[in-house]
Structures are given as C-alpha cells and as structure tokens.
Write a structure and sequence with these properties.
single chain; about 500 residues; alpha+beta; Cytochrome Bc1 Complex, Chain A, domain 1; 2 domains; seven-stranded mixed sheet; six-stranded mixed sheet; disordered N terminus
C-alpha cells in the first residue's frame, strides 16, 4: 500500500534541496490589515437618553369579552325543561339532569339523605340490577355519575354519539325508574358510613365540615355537610330514601342539560322515549332560599387532631347568593387574594415564608347566602405565625384593595377560565346544569362574563372590603391541640372553642 508522505519526510526533502543549492519556494507575505483604530467608522446619531432604539412599543387592544352561546330551551309534555347547546366537532354527547333539592332539603336528623338518595339511583334501575346496569354502561363506554350538593342533585351521562340511544334509555331508567332496593341499600349504607369515618381522619375535610356547622349553626339548612354525619347516617333507612325520591325527583322540577353532537329534534325524541312515563307523585314542596347566617359565632374554633402531621387553618365569613350582582366581579377579587397560584395568600404563605405548599380561598354559590373561606395546610410549628400572616393579608387586602397589576391579571384570567370551561362538552353540560339548578337563566354566563370583564378597580376594591374583611370572621384550626394552643396564644389569638370532627362543641 502506498503511504502518504509525513510532515517529517517533507522536511527532509526541503533540507536536501537546500543542500543542493536550490531555493525553496515560499508563499508571499501579505501585509497585515490596518489597525481597527485607524479605520474610519460611519457617522451615527447617538440615541436620546431613555429612548428605545427599536422605536415606540406598539399598543395592544384589550381582547373582546368572551360571550359563550346560550342553549336552546324547550319543555317536554310532562313539564321537564331541556337545555341544549349543540357541539358537532366531535361525536360526543354529555347530559346532566338536575333537580333543585339537595342537602338543604334534608329533614331534621336525616342529614345526608339527599346525598345517599342520589347515590342509590344507579344501584339497579328498570329491568336491570346493579351489576347488570353497571355492565351495560361499561359495554357502551358510557360514563355515568350521581351527585348532590347543598341545593341540588344531579345525574350525569357522557357517551359517544353512536351509543346515545341505548345509553339514554339507561339514563332514563336511572332517573325515572330506580329500583331503590333494600339489599343494595345495606351495601351502600355500609360504604357511606366508612366514608364518613375516613372523612373524620382527614384534617382538610374536617375543617370544611366544622366551618359549615360553626358559621351557619347546626339547625340551619346549610349547617351540616352534604354527605351527613355518622350520627345522622345511622338513622337513615331505605324508607327515608324512597320518600325523599318521591318528593324531590319530579319531572316538572327537573332540568335536562345536554351539550354535544345532537340536534333538538333528535334529543326531543330521545327524551320522550326515556322520560315519557315519568309522572310526579303528590304536590311538590315549595323551594325557599335559606336565610343568611347571622352569628354571633366564636372567634376561634380548634379541633384537636393529635396525630395530624400539619395544621389546617381557615378564615370563614358569610358570602353571597347565586343571584347577587356581585357574583361575576367577585371571581376576580377572589382570584387576586387566594384563587390562583399568583394570589397574595399563596405568594406570602408559600413563596415568601414557606409555611405551606399552597394557600387558597374560594366562595360557594348557593340559592341562599353561602360562605367565603381562606385556608391552608401549614407546618405545625408555624401554626400561629401562618394564621397571623393570613389574617394580616386579608386585612390589608380589604383595606387597600387590589393593585393595577391584579386588576389586569384577573381580567385576563377570568376570560381564560370561562373559555376553558366551554372547551369540552362535559364542562359545558356541568356548568349549565349548575346554573339551572340555582334558577339562573340560560344566558347567565354571557351576562356575567360581560359584568366580570368591565368591572373597574373601584368596584373590585369595594367587594374586597365587603367580603374579605377578617374583623368579624370565624377562624378555624385543625391540629394537635397540645402543640398549637400555645402558638395561637403567642400570636395574639383568643382562647379557642373546642369542637369535634363533626362540629359539635366539646368545651368553650
């Protein structure tokens, strides 16, 4: 194989040629470029101090208000109201049927009756038992759930369009022809009681239960948890469930909300087939909005949880009803103080002090006056400091109002939140069913979106001062009493009233 000459071999050849008297050719030496300092730079006009060299920043117009479409509304011969919002982008349909009776309609001593009645609806219906019904829904790929809150109960169905007729027939059986079998109730009740026992071991759930009882009072329609208590569950039987179903689940009180790939004529036929034989029994009870909580309530409530790794702190105050004109702009106020990651409470308690993984606030929407609650799970050793910081943040917010940056950010966030709700047929059906259950009109979201978007700083500051002032609020702490009591006293809080996990007073 022929090898290429190496650098050493070239050097030897060059030396040999020099020894023979032959000149070696070398590349001509080029002159070096002139120094940079000697090159004449082009003349430029220096910019004025403070002037952006790219020119003035273009101004962006505010995006238009998102106005979601209102559903088409019609009424069946039996008096059931139907809302339909067509969405044909995907072959999917989601329906929610709601009746305006929930936990607030529970009889005295039967807290959780509306909840367990809704839970029993899909435990056998029509010609199918509980197992056969569950299997039939699974074969269709349908998702069906039941639920209940303070003011309403729901049955929800989501299914592919091609399976809608069969799934809707099962949906009609569940709503209008539930079996409410005594044997199935024994199993459901056992699971219900186990869930209530588990709830008592959850500090966050305990705080929510105690907040409701302490704010409204145990005898108020909103004064008990939606799923009841261990004491009330023990006294609920299948006879109570059957009586409540007959009173509450009535076609003339029901609203069916559907969204997705279905047209009015098609839906009307399905409704007639599934609900045509559904008839009311007796006289419907009158719906009355519960009165607002009046107090006085204790300044501080402590629930002892000796084994809790953290403390839950909460500041609770009366809120507003779903029909209030303050509902729409209050979304932005709540977002600023505790409704998002960028909120004041979260930035202070989490980012600045490291007391918690997250601090939040929320307000309830109900037929009567609801509640506003700010809460966090905090490091036990910092319970007093964290609670003092939360109360200070709320007081500053109520006194000084929102910043201009918060005004702008919450306006954009409110639009984004509503748009995301309307992105899926399930989100649309759930949102509209919630509005219908509270007696709101079909176009409530469009009207509220406009009111929320146009709210100015003065209006938002007024709401912050009215709804988030902690001066007369109820403060709740769930945690190990032996550890947190001295911390609370050192932080300036009064001696607490002690309650158990279901809100009953232990000692004052």
């Amino acid at each position: 194989m022929k090898l290429l000459p190496t650098l050493a071999s070239w050097f030897l050849v060059e030396m040999a040629l020099s020894a023979c008297g032959q000149a070696v050719r070398t590349a001509p030496i080029r002159p070096l470029p002139a120094p940079v300092s000697s090159v004449t730079a082009p003349t430029t006009t220096p910019p004025n101090p403070g002037q952006d060299p790219l020119g003035p920043r273009p101004s962006l117009e505010s995006p238009p208000t998102f106005s979601p479409p209102a559903p088409v509304v019609f009424t069946t011969p039996r008096g059931m109201t139907v809302w339909l919002l067509e969405r044909h982008a995907v072959p999917l349909v989601s329906c929610d049927l709601t009746i305006p009776m929930g936990a607030a309609s529970d009889p005295d001593g039967k807290a959780g009756l509306a909840y367990v009645t809704a839970d029993m609806l899909d435990e056998g219906a029509g010609k199918l038992g509980a197992i056969e019904l569950a299997r039939a829904l699974d074969e269709l790929g349908a998702r069906l759930t039941t639920d209940s809150n303070a003011d309403a109960s729901f049955v929800s169905l989501t299914v592919l369009k091609r399976h809608l007729p069969r799934a809707f027939s099962l949906f009609g059986d569940i709503v209008a022809r539930p079996r409410l079998d005594a044997e199935e109730f024994k199993r459901v009740k056992e699971l219900w009681i186990n869930e209530l026992k588990q709830r008592a071991r959850d500090p966050d759930a305990t705080a929510r239960v105690v907040a409701r009882v302490a704010l409204f009072g145990a005898s108020h329609p909103y004064g008990h948890p939606w799923d009841g208590t261990l004491r009330s569950a023990a006294g609920v039987g299948i006879g109570d469930v059957r009586r409540f179903y007959a009173i509450a689940w009535r076609p003339e009180r029901a609203t069916l909300v559907c969204a997705g790939d279905v047209v009015p004529g098609e839906l009307s036929t399905l409704v007639d087939m599934a609900f045509g034989a559904w008839r009311p029994a007796g006289v419907a009870p009158k719906l009355v909005a519960p009165i607002a909580p009046k107090g006085p309530w204790p300044k501080l409530v402590l629930v002892d949880r000796p084994d809790a790794p953290q403390s839950v702190i909460a500041v609770v105050a009366p809120g507003l009803s779903a029909e209030s004109v303050d509902v729409a702009p209050l979304w932005r106020v709540n977002d600023a103080i505790g409704g998002s990651f960028m909120s004041r409470l979260n930035q202070d308690l989490r980012e600045d002090h490291g007391y918690t993984y997250g601090a939040r606030s929320r307000y309830s929407l109900s037929r009567g006056t609801g509640q506003i609650i700010s809460y966090a799970s905090v490091v036990t050793d910092k319970t007093g400091d964290a609670l003092a910081a939360m109360v200070t943040d709320l007081g500053t917010f109520a006194r000084e109002g929102m910043t201009e940056a918060e005004v702008d950010r919450t306006r954009a966030q409110a639009r984004q939140d509503l748009v995301s709700t309307y992105e899926s047929v399930e989100g649309v059906a759930r949102r509209l069913a919630g509005n219908a259950s509270l007696g709101l009109p079909p176009d409530a979201d469009a009207l509220r979106s406009k009111a929320c978007d146009k709210a100015n700083k003065a209006e938002l500051d007024r709401l912050a001062s009215h709804y988030y002032n902690p001066t007369d609020a109820l403060v709740i702490v769930v945690g190990p009493r032996a550890k947190v009591s001295p911390l609370l006293l050192a932080a300036g809080f009064p001696p607490p009233e002690q309650r158990d996990a279901e809100g009953s007073v232990v000692s004052k």
